[in-house]
Design goal:
The complex is a heterodimer of chains A (152) and B (500). Chain A is built from five helices and two strands. Chain A is mainly alpha-helical. The termini of chain B are far apart. Chain B has 500 residues and is an all-alpha fold. The longest helix of chain B has 34 residues. The chains are: A mainly alpha (152), B mainly alpha (500). Chains A and B meet through helix 1, strand 1, strand 2, helix 2 and helix 3 of A and helix 8, helix 9, helix 18, helix 19 and helix 20 of B.
Chain lengths: 152, 500
């Protein structure tokens, strides 16, 4: 646990250094006319300072303080979260091809199956009952959504 | 225009049939959102935002505002019946509300919640009505240096009051500031942190980030909770009207709750959590029977529920007068105003008096609607609570995607939303508060503009930030917050070092 927090603090430090470097490249301008990189480099400097404090704070802790211990999700939870994200990304990728109605039907179907461990019949009916009324409401409110290769 | 004629004008705007309808829809949706655990008012507002694009700005704001304070009413239902807070502001209600329900007094608990929320919301709306005009006048005296100091102090206060360590909140704040810098610099026209991606030249859309961090993050965090079996109090809920003894015990906690909620609601980071926790602590301290708290004390429901509604209404005061959101949910309202083409700030009262006074007046009407709605519809909310989360979360995810896509018809926004959802999830797991990140991101453009304008006016001298008494007062508060936050951990570090 402690090693993870030290790694996080080092990551914050690296982000501060990289963003400050990129901000320097944008041009700092003059004090009376600050350039595009002036404010970002101040933020970067602050982040570097805070990250150093954080690295020092995490490294100096010998015994993990139980009152501040953070619970990392279990392996099963991480698998579930990863699966949901994968389905969501796949849906986003295919949205312009499948269109909203078909794509959303597949999204809801796979989410219910992946997380709910229900039968296919339940998942199909639930998906239809969710997607069709939603599509009608969105059509009524004239919300623009991708049509896909099938035209809907 | 004097205050009374502006009130009349505002009431005229709020009482049009269309705006009455949207007020009703807003409070109904808000109550529904508050009842459903896992879907907060900010996420609901983000999801409904695309639907408001075709509405007049006044109606859209009345709808969204109704969702916000309506959710505070709804949150108490799940706290009392399920022992699961529907909203963060209903956490304290679980302690005594659920105990009252187990004792067969669910109706009284729900009733006193509704009445307390109504009284608190109304009192704070009255405060808002009479302070809005003078505060806006004061805000017009603010120059760039004062605005910069105000926003720095506001963000620091939010970091101080956020859960978790102050250091992590500040780091989170820096992350938000960076995200706010992405896009074309308005002074020089140079792209910043766009990495050649054309979609990023206009910056990262605030609504995309909020939907990611409120919608997607919340779902990823709740996925485990969806498997938890919920025990709903299924006995018939009756006797909704508190009796004379209940009122005698509740009236002072309600008034104190309104005062605490109004105060904390105006502070950046104050919000519903701080006001409800404070109210509970105060009532327990002042009670003649403090041992009854946690076992069904009606004071433990009346005070916090009033405080949470008061604080949600009080959040409108700095938003409408200064253009500064005090918490991410109010920030969502600010984002909505900007998307609708309305610039929030001290000039709002002059440039859009219909929105300003119309929204304020609609709160009186909304509070009455909520009190009338909540009590008879309790049976309906109980049925809705039975919908499994495993069905709800795909709907919420779908609405998040629709919301993100429909902003600019750009699929990149959906990918960004997912990215911020994952970032928010990782941040929460590592103990980094999300509120400082979001508020910093929202305020960054205004903060940077104020900073650069101040330097331009002073010819590059930083003394402009200490010349104005107003700016100095705010900076003193900022320094005090930083000192108080760092002293305690420093003392702890010193003590540990000395022990070794």
């Amino acid at each position: 646990m402690k090693r993870r927090e030290v790694l996080v603090s080092i990551l914050c430090l690296c982000m501060g250094i990289i963003s400050s470097y990129l901000a320097y490249g944008m041009g700092l301008g003059e004090l009376k006319r600050p350039g595009a990189g002036f404010f970002p480099i101040l933020i970067g400097g602050l982040l570097v300072f805070l990250s150093l404090l954080y690295v020092f704070d995490q490294s100096s802790k010998k015994i993990r303080d139980e009152s501040t211990s953070l619970s990392w999700p279990s392996r099963q939870s991480l698998k579930l979260v990863s699966l949901v994200l994968l389905i969501l990304i796949a849906y986003t990728f295919s949205l312009n091809y499948l269109g909203f109605i078909l794509g959303s039907f597949c999204l809801v179907l796979f989410l219910i199956k992946a997380v709910g461990a229900r039968g296919w019949f339940y998942a199909i009916i639930a998906s239809l009952l969710i997607v069709v009324p939603l599509a009608i409401v969105l059509w009524l409110f004239k919300v623009e959504l991708p049509k896909g290769v099938l035209g809907f | 225009m004097d205050v009374w004629s502006t009130l009349g004008y505002g009431m005229g705007v709020a009482l049009t049939p269309v705006n009455l309808l949207f007020c009703f829809m807003g409070v109904l949706l808000g109550t529904l959102v508050g009842v459903l655990p896992g879907l907060g008012p900010a996420a609901a507002m983000a999801l409904l935002l695309p639907l408001t694009f075709h509405l007049p700005p006044v109606s859209a704001m009345i709808l969204l505002a109704g969702i916000y304070y309506g959710a505070m009413y709804g949150g108490s239902t799940t706290s009392i019946l399920l022992n699961i807070p529907g909203e963060a502001g209903s956490i304290m209600t679980c302690l005594d509300g659920n105990q009252m329900a187990k004792q067969g007094r669910a109706g009284v608990a729900l009733g006193i919640s509704a009445f307390g929320s109504f009284i608190g919301g109304t009192i704070t709306t009255i405060i808002l009505t009479f302070t809005a005009f003078p505060l806006s006048k004061v805000a017009l005296e603010f120059g760039p240096a004062e605005y910069f100091a105000l926003m720095c102090t506001g963000i620091a206060l939010l970091c101080f009051l956020s859960q978790g360590s102050f250091l992590k909140s500040l780091i989170s704040m820096c992350g938000g500031l960076f995200v706010g810098t992405v896009g074309m610099d308005i002074f020089t026209g140079l792209p910043r942190y766009t990495f050649g991606i054309p979609s990023l030249y206009d910056g990262i859309n605030l609504v995309v980030v909020l939907m990611g961090m409120f919608g997607v993050t919340e779902i990823l965090t709740n996925l485990d909770a969806a498997k938890v079996k919920q025990t709903i109090i299924t006995k018939k809920v009756d006797h909704l009207l508190p009796d004379r003894v209940d009122w005698q015990r509740s009236i002072k906690p309600i008034l104190r709750g309104a005062a605490l909620g109004s105060f904390f609601g105006m502070l950046p980071g104050g919000g519903t959590i701080l006001s409800t926790f404070s109210s509970y602590a105060v009532e327990k301290k002042l009670s003649k029977n403090p041992e009854s708290f946690g076992k069904g004390a009606i004071e433990g429901v009346a005070g916090p529920e009033t405080a949470n509604n008061s604080s949600s209404t009080a959040g409108f005061i700095p938003l409408l007068t200064l253009g500064i959101p005090t918490n991410p949910t109010v920030a969502m309202l600010m984002a909505a105003l900007m998307v609708l083409g309305v610039q929030p700030g001290p000039l709002l009262i002059k440039s859009h008096p219909d929105i300003f006074w119309g929204v304020i007046m609609s709160m009186y009407i909304g509070n009455v609607m909520l009190m009338v709605l909540n009590l008879p519809l309790i049976g309906l909310w109980v049925q809705i609570l039975k919908i499994p989360y495993l069905i709800l979360f795909p709907i919420i995810l779908l609405l998040c995607v629709i919301g993100a896509y429909s902003l600019n018809n750009n699929i990149i926004d959906v990918y960004l939303m997912i990215f911020f959802g994952v970032l928010g999830y990782a941040m929460q797991k590592e103990g980094f508060a999300l509120a400082p990140f979001m508020l910093a991101m929202i305020l960054e453009p205004i903060l940077e503009m104020a900073f650069r304008q101040a330097l331009a006016i002073s010819g590059g001298h930083f003394r402009i930030f200490v010349l104005s008494p107003l700016a100095v007062s705010l900076l003193v508060v900022l320094v005090a917050v930083v000192i108080i936050s760092t002293i305690s951990p420093l003392m702890k570090l010193l003590r540990n070092a000395l022990r070794e």
